[in-house]
Structure formats: structure tokens, C-alpha cells
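To whoever picks this up:

The parser on our side crashed when reading a file containing two proteins. I've narrowed it down to the boundary between the first structure block and the second sequence. Both blocks are reproduced below exactly, byte for byte. First block:
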Amino acid sequence: MKKLLSYYLLLRWTKDSVVAAKIYQMLYTGEKIDFSTNVSSVSPTTPAQPQTKKQELETSLSYLKSKPVKSAKDKESIQMIQAVLKNLN
């Protein structure tokens, strides 16, 4: 219970679960941890091209249709999106 409480306090103090886990590990195992981040692992992302409303609706429709189990709300959303797309053309 003491270890759980200490991890929780570290998590609330650091606001980052990875840093809290590293500090926790350092406290309870005695290992020295390197806190530097690997910058090369983060690839720079280019801003995505803005989608038109029609593209957004088509993407949403394809996602909803590809779901293996569709709820009643999903089916209703599919019908609504199809109606909106029909009116856009």
C-alpha cells in the first residue's frame, strides 16, 4: 500500500506517468535512470491537409461501415451521413 501511495503521489506531482514510473523505480530498486528523451524517435510530422466536409463525411461513413458490430446509433449515423452526402452532390 505504501508503494502504491508513493507512486500515486509521484504521478500527481510529475503529471507524467513515464517520469513517475522512472522515479518510482529509482527509489525502490536503487538504479540510476537516464531521464533524457530520445529525440530521434520522435519524427517530425507535417500538418495534415485540411479535409473538406465531404471527405470528412466519407471517412466517417467508411469507418462506421467497417465496424464488425454496429449498434443502433451506428446504423442511425450511417443513414444520416448517407442522406447528407446525397444532398451535397
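<<boundary where parser fails>>
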Amino acid sequence: MPSALPLPDAIDAISLDLDDTLWPVMPTLVEAERTMHRWLQANAPRTAERSTVDRIREIRQRVAAGNAGRAHDMAWLRRESLRMALLESGDDPAHADAAFDVFYAARQQVTLYQDVLAALARWRDRYRLVVVTNGNADVDRIGIGHFFSARVASHELGVGKPDPRIFHEACAQIGVAPSRTLHVGDDLALDVAGARAAGLHAAWLRRPDIHGSGDHPEPGFADLHALDRALRATQAP
């Protein structure tokens, strides 16, 4: 199984997770939910009145339980949960698509971590970069799509991390072997263990605002600058 960081000259590509790796996702999701709720208040008021966090979560759990094959597709789960919430509230379930579109547009309004743009610019000149995500962020709408040679998302592929197939698909799309690819992500199980099981190298991005500063079972990097310094230390000039 590959080591946490590659040996000198051992990688040609870096695959990157998005949420909580390149930006903190919870503030974005909270604001997107608020934006959608305001739309529901104007267009489906009975649903808006009943749409507590607990109720929406319960509906989403029911939808996921009844559609195990779609559990990797958060966009579909959200849309279907909205449809069910509208129907149960007595509002027109056809509003689900428009309500989701409002949420989805707001979901792209992320705030990048300060290290992201500089690191991606450096890495683009040295490696092939590819997105590997279980989420539904759109790097083109966010404004960073030009850094990446390819994008692989679970809702399009049909499987998500930690399934080896999503990592292998990313490597295939950029034409780089798994053994010469480093995956970077914030989740120890989905990103680190999943990538290593698929034959990639892996680095854990341990953002202090997400993971805190205590002891952890896996060495990690507080930001992309720290990871870049470690990579440059192991790479031959």
C-alpha cells in the first residue's frame, strides 16, 4: 500500500477532494438552505412553515433508505426530499426543481481557504490535477475549473469514495497510473483510506477549523502550503 507521501519523483498527478478541503462547506450549505427557505416562503409557504431542520433530515433519511442505489447522489436526494416535503405539505411538488435550483446556485457561493489559489497555480505547472468528489460543487461556477484536467463526481459516475472505482476513473481520465497519483482530502476514511486501498498515495488535509488541533491517529497537513512544502522536500529538483 502506498505511503502517506510519495518518494522523490514518484507522482505525476494530484487528485483533490473539494468540500472541507478547498473551502469550508457548512457555512455555504447553511446559507444555501436559508436562501432556498426564503424562496419556499414566497412560492410554497406551507412547506416553508413546516420545513424544520429535523423534518427535512427525516424526509431525506426516508428517501435514502428507499433508494440505496442513489445514496451517493446528494443532488437527487435533495431534490426528491423537496418533492416529498412539498407533497406532504399540500404544495405543488413541481416546485421541487425550482427550489433545488435556488439551493444549488447558492451552494456554489463558497469561500476558498486562503492557500487554495496559490497552491493550485503551483501544482498545475507540475502535476495533472483532477477533482474527485462525493459532493455536487461545480468548480467551473466557483471559478477554479481552469486548474483541473478532469473532474470525477460520484453522482455522475454512480459510485463514490471510498469505492476504488472513483479513484481509478480519475486516474484513467488524466492518463496517470494510481501508483503515480497523490490524493488529497479531509476525510480519513473516504479520502485517505479509500485512496490508499485503490493504490494511490494519500495525504490528509487536517484543516484546524474542521478537525481542531488535538492529537490525531494520522499525520496531517494544516493547509496546502504545508503539503506543498513537504512535496517539494521529497521531490528532486
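After patching the parser it read the second block fine. Residues 13-24+112-234 form a domain with the Rossmann fold fold (CATH 3.40.50.1000). The chain has a mean pLDDT of 91.
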